[in-house]
Amino acid sequence: MADLSNHRRKLILIGNGMAGINTLEQILKLTNSFDIAVYGEEPYPNYNRIQLSYVLEGSKRIDEIILNDRNWYEDNGIELHTGTKVVRIDPDAKKIFTSEGDCADYDALIIATGSKPFVLPVPGATQQGVVGFRDIADCHAMIEASKRVKRAAVIGGGLLGLEAAKGLVQLGMETTVVHLMDKLMERQLDQAAAGMLKAELERQGIRFLMKAKTTEVLGDGEATGLRFEDGTELEAQLVVMAAGIVPNVELARASGIEVGRGIVVDDFMRTSAPDVYAVGECCEHRGIAYGLVAPLFEQGAVLAKHLAGAETAPYAGSSVSTKLKISGVDVFSAGEYEEEPGHRVLRRQDDWLGLYKKVLLRGNQIVGAVLYGDVTDAPQLAKLIREGAEMTDELYGRLFGSGQECAGGASKGAAAVLSMKDDEIVCGCNGVTKGDIVRVIQVDGLTTVDEIKVRTGATRSCGGCKPLVEQLLQVVLGDGYRERTAPKKGICGCTTHDSEEIVAAIREKRLTSVREVMAVMGWSEPEGCSKCRPALNYYLGMIWPTEHEDERDSRFVNERLHANIQKDGTFSVIPRMYGGVTSPEQLRRIAEVAEKYNVKMVKVTGGQRIDLLGVEKKDLPAIWEDLDLPSGYGYAKALRTVKTCVGARFCRFGTQDSIAMGIRLEKKFERLWMPAKFKMAVNGCPRNCAESGTKDLGIVGNDGGWEIFVGGNGGIKTTVAASLCKVKTDEELMDVCGAFIQYYRETGHYAERTSEWLERVGIDNVRDAVLHKPEVRKLLLDRVELALAEGKDPWREAFSDESLRRDYYQSVEADAR
Amino acid sequence: MINREQLNFAPIGGLSEFPRGLGRQVRISDWDLAVFRTTDGALYALENRTPHPKGGPLAEGIVSGHYVYCPLRDWKIDLEDGEVQEPDTGRVRTFPVRIEDEAVLIGLPSNSDR
Ligand code: SRM
Ligand SMILES: Cc1cc2nc3c(=O)[nH]c(=O)nc-3n(C[C@H](O)[C@H](O)[C@H](O)COP(=O)(O)OP(=O)(O)OC[C@H]3O[C@@H](n4cnc5c(N)ncnc54)[C@H](O)[C@@H]3O)c2cc1C
Ligand code: SF4
Ligand code: FES
């Protein structure tokens, strides 16, 4: 690179943030005639500052908000100096100086130093425990504080303050937003929308102190609270200053560059010094310093073209719109938001649904809008306001419908994207235009929002543009949009074969292993994926119960390890407690084990047994050995529990011994692999205290026999079980259950619960096989017996087999030295 | 310009301790790694943590070809470069693996570079 430097111009960027790097990205698209060096004070590559709110509330990690990782700089030949502050520019000598005393020459220089939090000029504001909300370091400081102290005060009820407050509540802090005005986000919202917002945020746990002027941060080196003008106080060990931002002009001022509120720039982002430019929040253009990203990208586009020598229209300022990134809260505002004399006001408010929509006109011109609750129209309104469009009857109809409701359908949205120009920005956060998106749909054949997000970045940050992207898909693909999103035939992306074809091939071609099925049936991924492998393993085991060697590596972790993985990587242990019956001796053993292994929680499950939660993987075999109880299969596509009621043995209404029958059924059918989890219940009478109506197999006692219900589900889509038949004797009951279970095992698709299965195959077919054709029932029963003969307790297997123990349950502990 | 990381190759055990088609958790100094052996015998070391916002370990994932499927949310992750596959996104940190005789060694950055 050094040899070429004579011919190449040297470009330096100060400020490794969103505006600066976006400008570089746009320059790189136009030219590679610069040698570029970037100086950033923060120790990170460029990240998405907007998403700090997500980092704070814990839904994203730092590395997930990195926009340009270090490879990006390297790949583009950019010299990156992180953790380096530039302290002075010498515009005459065209040099910059860093705090470490280094110096570098430039031909062109971009200042993009962003803003700083505005710190209230009150006593005590510089103490420990007072932070801003601007960068990763601030986030860390708040997260750390939330571990030590309980109460937080956020000064400022604007976008930043509210997002900070939500994050702190999420971190478990008791958080009060202190706001000078009597309404929140007063620079974006009108009274009505602000009121709805406040009510919703209160519901989410944020407290508010309105019309409160802070006069002092209390504390003795460390913040302990706030004092207000009226003399009252608020306790807080963490104080977040979110009352505004100020352009970071320190460097420019120290270097003799003209500064107003921000660094003064012209329509081509030129500062008062030759070849020195400024973009982003640090600059002031036509008297305005912006505080959102969309204008920064527009500025960057102009500057990039200017530097690359391409033709560009001058930057003429931006119209901004706002979206608050708090889940459950949809607010939007753009342009003028507070009605004044001279405005024509179009308004709809629905306090029941929590919807609010207001559009302001001057004459016929649309000049502002506020939305709350439903923000589908936000992109369209932002555009209309930006363009100063006129309201028409047609537009009115689209925005306000027939007068009935606030919400709108898809067709009106389609019209909005149709009228957009190709170079118009759809995703303000990431600078993605309509043309970019249409291109990837048409040329690259993308068909989902997720794909578009991956390829272009649109919808990646605040998500506000998602409705627009969906509308574009709709418009470009037309009916194809729905068609293409319709489910495909194959059981997963690796194959076009469905379950029936796979099961038939396994039988006919006598396929015996997962790999063989994939090879013979032409899988596109030679080793399959996490969807087809467990499915194939199940089908093979079901078809060849005695021959097939279970392929443990093809099982999902829970079934591979015979315990339930938890979010933190520990496991839960649920021993069998047949029919929900336990004994003092059993309870004692469980109690001892729980103490010995420091189990995090002992919980009674909804399935009438006990769960030991938070067990380390390496302890699993030992716990099982100490428990000396069979696995409850609480993790498996297999029989889970058989819930029972007290029944005839104790209950005054009981007609049958439901407990005994439940235990008998559980002992009989435990360990049998099924297409999906399988739950049972046995009740002593139709009062159904053990809830047969929502079980895969539910049994209800009556005077003189039992009634059998099937296909119930109490889960995601509650389904009431259907009555299969009534039987008179216990033996008949066992037979019907056995035949039913085997029929489901043989005809169910992998992962299909009996509720969906029953709907698919129809109860008449089930009755035919299980009840009406004795020879079919006999064969089903023979086959289920064969499968049942194979069952071994997996916990016992694990603790008595040294190699299982080692390969599956132990981690490797090594030493780096 | 950009610093190349200084790597330190540390032994984590014998090849036989890593059965094919499985992942194994390896704790070494402060590092929590997931070491996977694919069916073709190759070894990969990744940070034992999915890039999903809510986190969780990776070592227990299903290994298919040169991919691992995150055990908690089924994200598909390329073992070669740690890249999360579409439609999800993110990247898991990867570490170079070397096999010397029958010993498995992992290249870890020197302490300062976490
Ligand atoms: C432990 C337990 C909650 C409790 O403490 O009570 C539980 C815990 C889990 N349930 Fe459940 N379910 C438990 C009873 C239920 C019940 C009630 C019942 O069985 O009477 C239901 C509704 C009944 C039903 O299934 O029809 C239930 C419906 C679900 C569903 C939705 C199933 C569906 O088809 O709609 C799932 C998700 C799934 O399976 O995909 C689920 C999944 C889960 C998983 C396994 C999540 C997972 O995949 O990792 C949970 C494991 C938590 C953990 O970290 O260990 N759990 N789950 C209950 C264990 C009962 C037992 O002793 O085995
Ligand atoms: C929590 C939060 C949420 C936000 N949410 C939204 C939102 O939803 N929508 C939206 O549009 N906007 C939002 N914003 C605003 C948005 O992040 C900013 O508009 C944008 O980041 C400004 O870009 P910038 O490059 O001008 O400044 P920055 O991204 O702040 O970058 C400036 C960089 O310059 C560095 N720097 C400063 N001085 C020097 C120096 N002397 N030497 C070297 N480096 C220096 C700084 O360390 C910083 O890294 C949010 C901001 C925050 C903090
Ligand atoms: S279902 Fe019937 S027998 Fe069972 S406890 Fe309830 S009332 Fe008693
Ligand atoms: S506008 Fe924020 S992600 Fe697209």
TrEMBL record, chain A:
> Where does the FAD/NAD(P)-binding domain lie?
10-285
Please indicate if the UniProt record lists Metal-binding as a keyword: yes
Alphabetized, the UniProt keywords read:
2Fe-2S, 4Fe-4S, FAD, Flavoprotein, Heme, Iron, Iron-sulfur, Metal-binding, Nitrate assimilation, Oxidoreductase
Q: Where does [4Fe-4S] cluster bind?
A: 645, 651, 685, 689
Nitrite/Sulfite reductase ferredoxin-like domain residues: 565-628
* Chain ranges of the Nitrite/sulphite reductase 4Fe-4S domain: 636-771
A Pfam family this protein belongs to? Answer: NIR_SIR
Q: Does the keyword Oxidoreductase apply?
A: yes
Name listed for the protein in its UniProt record: NAD(P)/FAD-dependent oxidoreductase
Instruction: Provide the taxonomic classification.
Output: Bacteria, Bacillati, Bacillota, Bacilli, Bacillales
PROSITE patterns hit by this protein: NIR_SIR
> Member of which family?
Belongs to the nitrite and sulfite reductase 4Fe-4S domain family.
Species for this entry: Cohnella thailandensis
In alphabetical order, the GO MF annotations are: 2 iron, 2 sulfur cluster binding; 4 iron, 4 sulfur cluster binding; flavin adenine dinucleotide binding; heme binding; metal ion binding; NADP binding; nitrite reductase activity
BFD-like [2Fe-2S]-binding domain spans which residues?
425-474, 491-540
The family database entries (InterPro entries) matched by this protein are listed as:
BFD-like_2Fe2S-bd_dom, BFD-like_2Fe2S-bd_dom_sf, FAD/NAD-bd_sf, FAD/NAD-binding_dom, FAD/NAD-linked_Rdtase_dimer_sf, NasD-like, NiRdtase/SiRdtase_haem-b_fer, Nit/Sulf_reduc_fer-like_dom_sf
Name its co-factor(s): siroheme; [4Fe-4S] cluster; [2Fe-2S] cluster; FAD
Pathway(s) served: Nitrogen metabolism; nitrate reduction (assimilation)
Q: Which residues form the NADH-rubredoxin oxidoreductase C-terminal domain?
A: 321-388
As to how many cofactors bind and how, the note says:
Binds 1 siroheme per subunit.
Swiss-Prot/TrEMBL GO biological process terms: nitrate assimilation
Which residues make up the binding site for siroheme? 689
